Automatic annotation (TrEMBL):
The keyword Protein transport does not apply. InterPro entries: AB_hydrolase_1, AB_hydrolase_fold, AB_hydrolase_sf. This is Phosphate:H symporter (Phosphate:H symporter, variant). The keyword Nucleotidyltransferase does not apply. GO terms for molecular function: hydrolase activity. SUPFAM superfamilies: alpha/beta-Hydrolases. GO terms for cellular component: membrane. Gene3D superfamilies: alpha/beta hydrolase. The gene is J9VMW8. It comes from Ganoderma boninense.
Amino acid sequence: MASESALQTSSASYPSRVRMLTSPDGTRLWAESSGDASKPPIVFIHGLSCTALGWDKQFADPDLQRNFHIVRYEMRGHGRSGKPVEEEDYASARIAEDFKTVCDAFGLVRPFMVGWSLGGCIAVDVVTAYGADYISGIVYVGGSILALRYHPPCKHPLMDELWPIISSLTSDDMSTGAEAFVDSCVKQPLPFDVKLLWMGGFIMQPRAARYWSIRRTQDHTVWEATARRVPVLIVQGRED
């Protein structure tokens, strides 16, 4: 289900359409599309405790708008989307249904997925639920999370220090954790206004949503058995 909340213009040629969608379990999903709907579709998925604002530069890129149908959405538990707090709300099937809900709403067929950090592992849920042919390819950006099972051995050592802070229940730790987490996402300091936007996205997320987003159960076997059929690009900078 979808309701159109606004029509925003990102450029004279390519309007940006914002929609609030409803996943099959009733969770609301914020999503936005832009670019040329006749061109290959790309779905951009943000990382843990972030929002779709992380893709603002991509959505302002005239080359991307001209050559692709670009879509971004905020995962359940994040940003402007619904924030359920129970473990079952973050089951792999629910995550896959969210992606399909976005694709159906914007008429996307076999889209490319671009996942930043945690956003990359959503491909595992999608392929498990709908098969490898549901997508055209995957771009992993700035993170080791090809699947959730790979996170513990591959994560940056900084996460061992950050996790107790960012999963804290106290308000003092939450503000400290928000700033530390946002700072950890980039090598060079963000502009102050952008940093505040990202910190706001972190702080508005319930602790349980953060916990289950990364600690949920995910079956990687179907993905690993079929991954060779899916074109993959891994973008990992020296300073990521």
